[in-house]
Amino acid sequence: MSLLNDLININLSDSSEKIIAEYLWIGGSGMDLRSKARTLPGPVTDPAKLPKWNYDGSSTGQAPGDDSEVILYPQSIFKDPFRKGNNILVMCDAYTPAGEPIPTNKRFNAAQIFSNPAVAAEVPWYGIEQEYTLLQKDINWPLGWPVGGFPGPQGPYYCGVGADKSFGRDVVDAHYKACLYAGINISGINGEVMPGQWEFQVGPSVGISAGDEVWVARYILERIAEIAGVVVSFDPKPIPGDWNGAGAHTNYSTKSMRNEGGIAVIKKAIEKLGLRHKEHIAAYGEGNERRLTGRHETADIHTFSWGVANRGASIRVGRDTEKEGKGYFEDRRPASNMDPYVVTSMIAETTILWKP
Amino acid sequence: MSLLSDLINLNLSGTTKKIIAEYIWIGGSGMDLRSKARTLDGVVSDPQKLPKWNYDGSSTGQAPGEDSEVILYPQAIFKDPFRRGNNILVMCDAYTPAGEPIPTNKRYNAAKIFSHPDVAAEVPWYGIEQEYTLLQKDLKWPIGWPVGGYPGPQGPYYCGAGADKAFGRDVVDSHYKACLYAGINISGINGEVMPGQWEFQVGPSVGISAGDELWVARYILERITEIAGVVVSFDPKPIEGDWNGAGAHTNYSTKSMRNDGGYEVIKKAIGNLQLRHKEHIAAYGEGNERRLTGRHETADIHTFSWGVANRGASVRVGRDTEKAGKGYFEDRRPASNMDPYVVTSMIAETTILWKP
């Protein structure tokens, strides 16, 4: 459809100062991404200078029909890889007309935690490993899997190459470059253990930006899958049986952990997480009990454990960190459908603010 | 899917200094290639300046789950023909966290042999003729072959042209250019005797780089077949019966062989190889006994023989070399699924270091 592409790719900078801003927000399920676009008179780089907007919350399960306006507050700007030029993507969160965050707005509380002086002083870094599964569009069966059947068992697919081992790389590679273009701190990608499953990593990001960047990266992924005619699933156990689930391992460090003597701070932080295991699990994603079975490189959901280089533990500390006596650790419990605002702020809250 | 291609082909050099490095390694079977990508802050051209990395060895049969980290040491850099720009492919080998090469790491031993002063002084050159077969994706039957049947007998296909004689040239030609782009010393290609079978040659390469270049050329081939929706097979005898097998003939010379009087050095080297025939055969690829039958331009696996211009011998010396009194010879025994690190270093070891 060359003529259509020509139009989609028109470079407006030659004919107009105007730009297009795509406002993104999270809908009523807490996982459905929504967006709509508006024209602005010229380029904008500071989110505070973007106009607030509103949307029909009764169409997203976030407001009643007789009082349906939900207000969008722009929070961060990224370059738009689809429209390019000076056009932008804008990550927003949602408020009532009275200025209160609506119940599904998890960013508000996270931002409060991250601006707590004790937390801000620790400059918390996050590296989030987002796993996801690509599905064939009308049948919702994983990409590359035979219809009505299963591929050969897991083994050849992790980081695999070849038409019989790797399904959907064009989506993954397009996503990698699009995110880099957008200004998202995407640090890598790899093919996962289950065929049709992939992972990208975002980080290291500081505080609230981790959540913003993961949500916009998820949005870009959904847009690219839309172009490719496949469907993205963030379900933590898309196929029951001897098939890996999908997680969102969250790597974390604070200034104290990154400095000399950090390993002791890390161990103390892990202890605190162990004492709040149930609370964290409850916030780490719906359906995680289907994934955290103790098999397939997970720890059982009821048990908290940690270990060096141990992929079967709730929390894994890398050998580098152990060797150098400082660094970071990996919380392997969050599911692929976790809300990064919730998970990142909760880890900071438990390890920095909470007293046992 | 032009919009997808637009994204895959985004030239990031305009928006960021960051580059993408695809780290490549060999998995637990010794033939399965694996790779994953990471973002680097800027251009890197020296492998020593690339960061070491690690991967989940428990997912590739190279480490247990409770101690799963395997460390990747970058060894050689090539330009990435898929991402282009300043993006790179990085050939790596694998080590335990303690710094020991893991059992499947054949490069380590080869590098030791090639850095032995006697070997280094001889500047060993290699030209490797990699044969391979292209298969239809879901049937694993050679491409161009009728489903449930066979094509006409061998004869018209070697270097043939035409839709009824050449199957898969688009894969082969894109591979040729992609390898040249990457900086691999690819010296030629040709259609092989069996329909659907092809060959490319890499060389002349010195010492350890022969192995690096061949492995990366194999990786690029797997990526291209993935794009094309066909499967590459390195099996040495993919179809039983009156159909040629696939080899990796290894052409070899040392400084002494290339200088005046070299023909005597060549004959002595061949003599050494003859005395170690069994040891070499054991290291020249799994399943080679199905290929080295004495028919189809091979020598019988149990017998060592050599001759000028003789394609039915284990080792062939070219007429040019005989006439000039110096040059190189061709070891025709290695199978298409041989490990070039093993074969190249073993030939150097037997002909330069080993005493009968």
Topology:
Two copies of one chain form a homodimer.
Chain A: H1 2-8, E1 19-26, E2 33-40, E3 53-56, E4 69-79, E5 88-95, H2 107-115, H3 117-121, E6 125-136, H4 169-182, E7 186-191, E8 197-206, H5 208-228, E9 230-233, E10 248-253, H6 255-258, H7 262-275, H8 277-283, E11 306-308, E12 315-317, H9 319-324, E13 329-331, H10 340-353
Parallel strand pairs in A: 1-5, 11-12
Antiparallel strand pairs in A: 1-2, 3-4, 4-5, 6-8, 6-9, 6-10, 7-8, 10-13, 12-13
- Oligomerization: homodimer
Instruction: Count the DSSP helices of chain A.
Output: 10
Which band does the percent of strand residues of chain A land in?
Answer: 15-25%
Give the class of chain A from helix and strand content and strand pairing: alpha+beta
- Largest sheet report of chain A: 8 strands, mixed
- Global geometry of chain A: globular
CATH superfamily label of the largest domain in chain A: Glutamine synthetase/guanido kinase, catalytic domain
Q: Which two chains touch over the largest interface?
A: A-B, 53 and 50 residues
Q: What is the second-level CATH architecture of the largest domain in chain A? A: 2-Layer Sandwich
What is the average per-residue confidence, as pLDDT of chain A, rounded to a whole number? 96
Query: Total strand count of chain A, please?
Result: 13
Whole-number tally of structural domains of chain A = 2
Q: Would you list the SSEs of chain A in sequence order as H and E? A: HEEEEEHHEHEEHEEHHHEEHEH
Spans of chain A of at least 5 consecutive residues whose pLDDT stays below 50 are none
